[in-house]
Amino acid sequence: MDSKSPKAGVALLISKWRSLVPGHAEDLGPDVSPVETQQPQWDDKWSPDVLLDGFEVRTYRMFDRPHLEEEPEGTLIATLVRAHESRRRRAILHIHGWNEYFYQPHLAQFWEDLGYDFYAIDLHRYGRSFQEGELFGYMDSVDDYYQELDAAIEVISADHSLLLLSGHSTGGLTACLYANDRPKTFAGVVLNSPWVDMQGSALFRALTPPIMKGLAVASPTMVIPQAENDLYGRTLHKDFYGEWDYDLRLKRNESYPVRPGWLRAVVRGHDRIAEGLHVDCPVLVATSTRSSDVREYCEEAMTSDLALNADRIAARAHQLGWHVTLVRLAGALHDVSMSRLDVRQRFFDEVRRWELSYVRGRVAQDKAAEAIAEAEAQEG
Q1: HEC profile for the chain?
Q2: Are 95 and 79 in contact (CB under 8 A)?
Q3: Residue 53, Cβ neighbours under 10 Å: how many?
Q4: Which entry of 66, 90, 222, 329 is 20 to 30 Å from 113 by CA?
Q5: CA 35 to CA 167: how far, in whole Å?
Q6: Do residues 313 and 328 touch, judged by C-beta distance below 8 A?
Q7: Which domains does the chain have, with CATH numbers?
Q8: Does residue 361 carry a pLDDT above 90?
Q9: pLDDT (average), residues 244-250
Q10: How much is the pLDDT for 5?
Q11: How far is Cα 293 from Cα 308, in angstroms, rounded to an integer?
Q12: Is the pLDDT of residue 211 over 80?
């Protein structure tokens, strides 16, 4: 998650929960308005991206996915972004985090230099795919994104024989669950500060999931009150303390509203990870060595994760699969790839080393696959 997570007082949440949850409420999720069903489809061709020079976009229109009752009439869309036409047999698909879209050409350039055609997806209700009146970023389940991810993989696979998957923060949560549920699809998964566990104190982590699940039954799209902290965004953007330029309408310094149905979906994803995933390819998890909750600009804000608990990420990494590499980088921000130059260079060096050892190195990859099969056989 790329803004400060909701930490409204537990007492306030309990009060709202008690006032909203009926005695025998059923977990039905948000209502949707009926529309005439059509088959989802891609736009006929790639078009120049209006946000990043030299990039191209293609829109996937999910005519079978109507808007929520709270939204205007219409259907959901997703947007696939690419650096250029297919040139190589290897490709990578990147999934952004919360309060984000794809805006990092230096990330694409790294993968291009490593020998991969680079693709990114702006998921529905985010970035290039956001349509006026939509509930920004809302999902009822992480697998709400599987349809557009499947469609993107189909497009990419038509021109590439080896695929990697990458995800940051909430996109990292989506990436590890999707890779788990789509075995034999990816040769590797790269997770940049993935949101794999709830942050906060032990009490907060214990109380938040049942409260959010309860609120989501009665009012999934209500706005959860939260203490706003826009410092993380200010550490990134060039107009404040950072070095990066991006559209502040699509990635705001302050968080977009967080809703119970969305947070319930995140918690359910965390529950699945806690039970143990079985991602069938090598996984790289990169995170900072420390987190911070400072609210004013200081050196600590520029050298730590202000959004998630890096220690919780590290503690959960081993539950993603049988072959997981954990890298912790001193001085890293929540988005490790957006950290100061020396830190992000170390991050890219680690990714390069991992890719050479466990993806490009066929012998090493085959050995890892054999170890995974053997471990699964022993478990089963």
Answers
A1: CCCCCCCCCHHHHHHHHHHHCCCCCCCCCCCECCCCCCCCEECCCCEECCCCCCCEEEEEEEEEEECECCCCCCEEEEEEEECCCCCCCEEEEEECCCCCCCCCHHHHHHHHHCCCEEEEEECCCCHHHCCCCCCCCCCCCHHHHHHHHHHHHHHHHCCCCEEEEEEECHHHHHHHHHHHHCCCCCCEEEEECCCCCCCCCHHHHHHHHHHHHHHHHHCCCCCCCCCCCCHHHHHHECCCCCCECCCCCCCCCCCCCCCHHHHHHHHHHHHHHHHCCCECCCEEEEEECCECCCCCCCHHHHCCECCCCHHHHHHHHHHCECCEEEEEECCCCCCHHHCCHHHHHHHHHHHHHHHHHHHHCHHHHHHHHHHHHHHHHHHC
A2: no
A3: 8
A4: 329
A5: 32
A6: no
A7: 10-20+31-379 (3.40.50.1820)
A8: no
A9: 97
A10: 43
A11: 9
A12: no
pLDDT tens per residue across span 90-142: 999 999 999 999 999 999 999 999 999 999 999 999 999 999 999 999 999 99
Q: Which residues pair with 165 in a beta bridge?
A: 93, 189
For 132, 250, 265, the CA distances from 72, given in Å and listed in that order, are: 8, 19, 23
The answer to whether residues 267 and 198 touch, using CB atoms and an 8 Å cutoff, is yes
How far apart CA 215 and CA 217 sit, in angstroms, is 5
Neighbours of 259 (CB within 10 A): 27
- From the number of C-beta atoms within 10 Å of its C-beta (0-12, 13-18, 19+), residue 203 rates as exposed
pTM of structure: 0.86
Alpha-carbon span 263 to 158, nearest angstrom: 35
User: What are the phi and psi torsion angles at 123 (to 5°)?
Assistant: -65, 165
Q: Which two tokens stand for residue 276?
A: 């143990």
Structure confidence at residue 372 (pLDDT): 77
* In the predicted structure, residue 4 carries a pLDDT above the cut 90: no
Contact indicator for 192, 350 with CB cutoff of 8 Å: no
Percent of the chain with pLDDT over 70: 83
Comparing C-alpha atoms, which of 128, 106, 111 is closest to residue 54? Answer: 106
Rounded to whole angstroms, the Cα distance separating 140 from 261 reads 6
Structure tokens at 318: 């081993």
